[in-house]
Amino acid sequence: MRHIPLTIAVLTAFALPAAAQRDPITSGLEVRSFAGAYFPTGNQRDDFKPASTVGVQLAQEVTDHFHVLGSVGWTHGHNKFAAFNDDVTYVWNYDVGVEANALHWINDTWLFRPLVGVGFGGRTYDYQATNVGSSSCTVAYGNAGTEFQRGVVALRLDARDYVTCFKSPVTARKSTRNDMSLTFGLVYHIR
After folding, report:
1. Which fold has domain 3-190?
2. What residue segments make up the domains of the chain, in order of their start?
3. Of 69, 71, 70, 89, whose CA–CA distance to 79 is shortest?
4. Does residue 18 surpass a pLDDT of 90?
5. Which residues pair with 146 in a beta bridge?
6. pLDDT at 19 over 50
7. Percent helix, strand and coil across the chain, each rounded to 5?
8. Residues forming a β-bridge with 122
9. What is the band of 27 on the pLDDT scale with cuts at 50, 70, 90?
10. For range 90-113, the mean pLDDT
11. How many other CB atoms are found less than 10 A from the CB of residue 15?
């Protein structure tokens, strides 16, 4: 946690020389980190509690308005299954997607980039309770958010709405579930 202010300061220092350029960065690789909150909704709320989530994304900026990306996220979740001797459940998301964004210069140095996206992939529930195995299933998502970019660094806010299949570790019954995540992150544009 102590390294976060230092990391922000270093990334900002790298961004300052490029900040005077008013042309958006095109056709570049982006490394995105994120942290935030996971919110189960609907039936998922009956089995899981809200939790913290972190992850990383790699994105390729194909044009000023279009990205392809891959994400890996980890949630330190807690389940509500009374029969389990441990309620900790690590939830792993791994997916690929696309994003479209608009561009709006706020001033000569800050670029506002509202965005929307969709994607699909998988999810693994890794239950830490004794004698309970992990299970994996497919997931699809839609997201909306924004970036505030200055040079090669951007601050990112993102909301994702997930639809996933779910296999109950108690009854083995499969169902379709829904949950959301709200995250904040840093983006570094590699030229």
Report:
1. Porin (2.40.160)
2. 3-190
3. 89
4. no
5. 114, 157
6. no
7. 10, 65, 25
8. 94, 138
9. low
10. 95
11. 18
